[in-house]
Amino acid sequence: MTLAIIGGTGLYHFGDGVNAEVIATPYGEAAIFRLQLNGREVLFLPRHGIEHRIPPHRVNYRANIWALHALGVHEVLATQAVGSINPRMALGHFAILAQFLDFTKCRPATFFDEQVVHIDITHPYCPRLSARLLRAGEFLQDQLHSDAVYACTEGPRFETAAEIKAFRMLGADLVGMTNVPEVILAREAGLCYASISIVCNWGAGMNNYPLTHDEVVSVMSARTAELHTLIARFIQDEDENDCRCPSLGFAQYLPGLG
């Protein structure tokens, strides 16, 4: 099973001395690195580009997922920095996503622009990979949370205090700007997709100081070693491919993808 890691804010590189491949897709190009980690070939895709120049609302999510599928990827582990709405999920904690709320506005969110295709996304994240993440993160003890609900906003601005209050009332634990439509496209392509978030700030209005990107990067940097350990343990874990994710996708209806 070919595995890809999607690196978000703070995870721009994974290994040294490797050149990126530029993969052409019907939606544009995607830059991807081939790595050998723990005796296994792993693809690494920096979501915001090699030099972190692409803002969240301009990420070419369709090109990224299409390229991974075209390279034979079956499993995707996504990472991202998030803000916390849930006081239990404190700064520096890790959280495995289980559900999302979509508050994006202007992003292409499907491969099916010319066909009527409805995918089942009742449980958007792969339960098998999420269970592997939970096992891999046992060393984090009470700093790892499972079954987190993620509210995705358009960005690139941070949210208002009223928005954060509304998201909390709707049941969200975390807020971020990148996981949607990435997880949706992965399901359409029949990929197993799981996501680990690192809490790097509190939601707007939960503290009396302004939100800054510098704070996000600072907290993420402080937890990079733990994130690398978590990923290494995730890669080393062996499990049976017994989930339903491939059968829930519709890649066979897309020329060049199926």
Based on CA inertia axes, which overall geometry fits? globular
End-to-end CA span: 17 Å
Order of helices and strands: EEEEHEEHEHEHEHHH
CATH topology: Rossmann fold
Estimated share of beta-strand residues: 25-35%
Report the average pLDDT across residues.
91
| Tally of structural domains | 1
What can you see in these coordinates?
The two termini are 17 Å apart. The chain is globular, with a radius of gyration of 17 Å. A five-stranded mixed β-barrel has the order 5-8-7-6-9, surrounded by four helices. The chain is of the alpha/beta class. It contains seven helices and nine strands. α1 packs parallel to α4 (179-188) and α2 (127-136) crosses α6. It has one domain (2-253): Nucleoside phosphorylase domain (Rossmann fold), CATH 3.40.50.1580.
Provide the descriptors you would attach to this structure in a database record.
alpha/beta; Rossmann fold; 7 helices; single chain; 258 residues
Short description:
The protein has 258 residues and is α/β, with parallel strands linked by helices. Helices cover 26% and strands 29% of the residues.
